[in-house]
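Problem statement: downstream parser choked on a complex file, so we are re-checking the raw output for the 2-amino-3-ketobutyric acid run. The parser issue turned out to be on our end (a line-ending mismatch), but while we're here, posting the original submission so the record is complete.
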Amino acid sequence: MNYRILVIGACGQIGSELTYKLRSVNGMDNVIAADIKESNIELVNSGPFEVLDAKNFNQIKRCVKAYNIDTVYLMAAMLSAKGEQFPKKAWDLNMTSLFNVLDLAKEKLINKVFWPSSIGAFGPTTPKNNTPQHAIMEPNTVYGITKQVGERWCEYYNKNYGVDVRSVRYPGIISWKTLPGGGTTDYAIDIFHKAITDKKYECYIAEDTELPMMFMEDAINATINLMNAANDSITIRSSYNLAAISFTPKQIAESIKLQIPEFSITYNPDFRQQIAASWPKSIDDSKARIDWNWSHDFDLEDITKEMLMQLNNMYSLS
Ligand code: AKB
């Protein structure tokens, strides 16, 4: 019998690229994509796809049994900015989906779980520079609360029920294939689109607000490497700090200007500024680097070049 993977939330920004990568490594038919809607047609047409509500335990269970799933990547979530507009819905989606998957692992219907946490699990009282793995965590967004609580539950299910659950605290993830939705760090993607289409961008984050960020390719490698690591090398069962680079809106704008000299940026901070200001500026991810040899490849210059090249191609073809 084949080793089979289910990606829940497969139409989303990270879910879609994770699905493509897992399919290229494990074979098309061994990676089942699932989402609440068929919202990414390219992804839907690229292999097995199931319409599935991450909040519905029985739907996930049926899918796990039908495809004989071994490993679940739970990528469905409401992000930080949208979560502030729909606090109860964010709590419900983010927590119910996690319990559904952890309980399937507890019942031994699946063997392994990946669940993403985030820098959003930290809050205004967390040390901002080189934030340690173990730090004060008092998140003040609903999203952050779900991530902090989720981390505690992951560790609890591992310690008490032997569930093999693995997690990283993603920084802002920058990519060009699928747009993100409802995050605070989305500005670092919007800015590239607007640099190409309008040559200018109005940023909803203040110019000197520094945040940890990462290119999608690095994020996917981190996720798969963590899941492939030997069980006894995983010493953190809540969620690993994970980092690549940190920059401010002003610094990313400078980097774009090196490629597009006429590009200009203005600032008009909104409610997302307060969220960004409550998060770390940089992250100490030495645990991940030691335990499962994590290292990143893309710095700001690489990301800028790749984003502008890919988006230029995309817009010139459309
Ligand atoms: C968000 O901005 O909400 C996410 C995150 C950092 O978790 N991108």
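For whoever reads this later: The CA atoms of residues 28 and 47 lie 6 Å apart.
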